Amino acid sequence: MRLSRFFLPVLKEVPADVQIVSHQLMLRAGMIRQEAAGIYAWLPLGLRVLKKVEQIVREEMDRAGAIEILMPTLQLADLWRESGRYEAYGDEMLRITDRHKRDLLYGPTAEEVVTDIFRASVKSYKDLPLNLYNIQWKFRDERRPRFGVMRGREFLMKDAYSFDLNEADARRSYNRMFVAYLNTFARMGLKAVPMKADTGPIGGDLSHEFIVLAETGESQVFCHKDLVEMGAPGPDVDWDGDLQPLVDQRTALYAATEEMHDAAAFEAVPEADRLSARGIEVGHIFYFGEKYSKPMKANVAGPDGSNAPVHMGSYGVGVSRLLGAIIEASHDENGIIWPDAVAPYDVSVINLRTGDAACDAACEQAYAAINAAGKAALYDDRDERPGGKFATADLIGIPRQIVVGPKSLAEGNVELKIRATGERSTLPLADALKSVGA
Q1: What is the largest CA-CA distance in the chain?
Q2: Can you give the pTM of this predicted structure?
């Protein structure tokens, strides 16, 4: 993409009430625009990153055996009345009445809808286990939306729902999602620590939050220091094996500023083994058994022919929230530093003297070669001063910059800059292209 033809409304200043780094940088980098409190339009640069994050989530769900569907944003209130949650959910639910006086709601989550889909089609234990997931916009009418996409009212969420014959099978499904989450966040360059959590309005007796460590995180977290250094299981994990030992090994005991989980057990951990850090919640998983299947009569026939409610779990990832978390964990004073896997473009080509025949030719060569190699290049061909081009490139955080200027080019060279480290090297264009995989 040529920057002269791109829509990138970068800002020099942001509103004074913007409190956190990710919100500031997403506005400054022209990724989002606020349309109402907690509601954002996604502009081209932000949308490219959002789609990359979404695709990583999708790939890891598929690899763990989940099946994608797409559920509606508007849901029938009667389904929520069946489960008993319509009144209990509270003011965060946006309730709507259509022209026929039917009660609808803008879905904050989708346990009821997916249970209705399941019960209409699945009648036998032979069709289990089943895990259905959905990447869809949700709405929760936060009393005080803040922190940009970190705590908005409208947000993109991946929610998966598992269906099993009994508790033992359901816990195995839970463990598969637990491991898939570790892999998902690791692929985005994030250190995510899974922590035992309250189940809240979702219900059940087993739950984990996944906390991304970031110095500017919203909550203070205390956990066993070894957990911070543990990596994800990786692509060779045995999905059909016993994942419980791995889950047990990765689960933290923690205390946070607003709540306390397993406090007594945490106090038993030697002080030398604790780490205090800041963190951001980006995922939450639940096992809640028959909480929805029983009142909604989502039953299957077991091996003995008797009908029984299925055991369920739900698994959420804040897809749009992840962009804020990644920026909080990866930025500097000049702007965003995108990990390779989620960067909107792979390489930025910067022409320091647009209109100079030699510079234009070298940039066109670089731009074409990068795109031909299957990489995505953003070519800054604007008639702007070099300082402004450098500032834009650092602000939007593309991992690698190829800088073409008349001085270096006269000597047969260009400059290659690595955004994350600031490392610069002067080398021939062919070598720079080889370094960026073109």
Answers
A1: 82
A2: 0.93
